[in-house]
Amino acid sequence: MAEHSARHCCLGWDFSTQQVSTRAQTRTLPQSFFYKDSNHPGLGTQGGVHVHEDGLTVTSPVLMWVQALDIILEKMKASGFDFSQVLALSGAGQQHGSVYWKAGANQVLTSLTPDLLLREQLQACFSISDSPVWMDSSTTAQCRQLEATVGGAQALSSLTGSRAYERFTGNQIAKIYQKNPEAYSRTESVSKISVSCFLPSLGSGMNLLQIQDKVWSQACLGACAPGLEEKLGQPVPSCSVVGAISSYFVQRYGFPAGCKVVAFTGDNPASLAGMRLEEGDIAVSLGTSDTLFLWLQEPMPALEGHIFCNPVDPQHYMALLCFKNGSLMREKIRDESASRSWSEFSKALRSTELGNGGNLGFYFDVMEITPEIIGRHRFNAENHEVSAFPWDVEIRALIEGQFMAKKIHAEGLGYRVMPKTKILATGGASHNKDILQVLADVFGAPVYVIDTANSACVGSAYRAFHGLAAGTNMPFSEVVKLAPNPRLAATPTPGAFQVYEALLQRYAVLEQRVLTQTRRPSE
């Protein structure tokens, strides 16, 4: 790719419920242009979705994404954006959203006229006009049915990377087949939310793909709906070039006829690419909820977390762990123990010893996902539960506990810290160097901070460049080597490994004790 001028770029797209956005990224990577559309006139959505009367069903109008795509491309054209310089494009859609194309839609897509907008030509192409999205939780019955078919929740997780979740595409398809068989029979193909009118997408996050073999699970397909494999098409590696761009975009906007389309993926895998994780790395997003992205070689699927195919290395995997009690929990303890002051909060972390004198705490004011525990539980060095800690011990117990839980559950999915491991921290709490110091100490790895604004867009653009290099065996790290480096924020304190090696074992045992105690009343 060295022969391309600096003006050449790739487009990275991100299709979410609240907005559609794209980023034009140059080969030398520091310069970019960003366009987005978050308005959906005439569609009556709130935050991009319709919440149905049952409170469980949540959908978005399919035409919302088509309309947003039209608007963004027209804005780019009006601003003078030179589409002829686009070498390739890729993108991300909601990991679990789905679009249902009516019989005959493919014929329409292959004969689009450049004189009309996409929305005008695609209005009648969908057998289901409202797509189920990631917020939907109406498919519990279908989840239990799928798990029963393959031998239980753990069996399904071992097969597809996750136990059955209501938002996953396979269970949504099963519901549509059961509740609206006529619409399903009219469906020619099912694709993920993305520029899905042209392209296949990632199979992970559907409860349908066998993650080890990278093929559809026949048992799961059969449990969801008949004839599903034909409607889905065959999964492909994320770095695959799936073809050249549609002539519609060449004629209407001036894309080059040779512009490549690289397979789209989900928003979380695209974010992993945007953060440029490498083998052994971890990304920790410290926000309202905390999220852990892991690069795995040998995954160990469990009842918690999710295993996906790696979006930048088809031989490896990625994992996702979510923790509900994130920044809001940290803010509560700050308010209660540090007079609402982050300065006092940090002072407590600096003044207390590593390991907190053996005091451990679990702080879950809302029902946690990983693990399923609620309440606050404190233990002294003798493993006796106590009602309270001194204010500074309370603060360190919270932060140490949050990071020990993350490491324990990451290891439960097969993750191991390596000598070259980097931790990339993002989100609000990543601005607090004392919190990051605890993170470095608990994991035994250096912590870096990185700007991850619009990371799914950025990752999609990076993946488009990577797709152009497909067949040359160029690693993803080589493609993005000119990108800005993350900034080192914290390194492990000498002796921290020995302190936390013992403490992590105690934390895991106490977590199981708390889990047993909190489950007992409902048994």
From TrEMBL:
Broadest EC class assigned to this enzyme: transferase
Catalytic activity: D-xylulose + ATP = D-xylulose 5-phosphate + ADP + H(+)
Described purpose of this protein according to its UniProt entry: Phosphorylates D-xylulose to produce D-xylulose 5-phosphate, a molecule that may play an important role in the regulation of glucose metabolism and lipogenesis.
SUPFAM superfamilies for the chain: Actin-like ATPase domain
One matching Pfam family: FGGY_C
Domain named Carbohydrate kinase FGGY C-terminal: residues: 283-466
EC code(s) of this entry: 2.7.1.17
Family: Belongs to the FGGY kinase family.
Transmembrane segments: none
Keyword presence, rRNA processing: no
Highest taxon listed in the record's lineage: Eukaryota
Molecular functions per Gene Ontology: ATP binding; D-xylulokinase activity
Name the UniProt record assigns to this protein: Xylulose kinase
Entry keywords, A to Z: ATP-binding, Carbohydrate metabolism, Kinase, Nucleotide-binding, Transferase, Xylose metabolism
Gene Ontology terms: biological process: D-xylose metabolic process; xylulose metabolic process
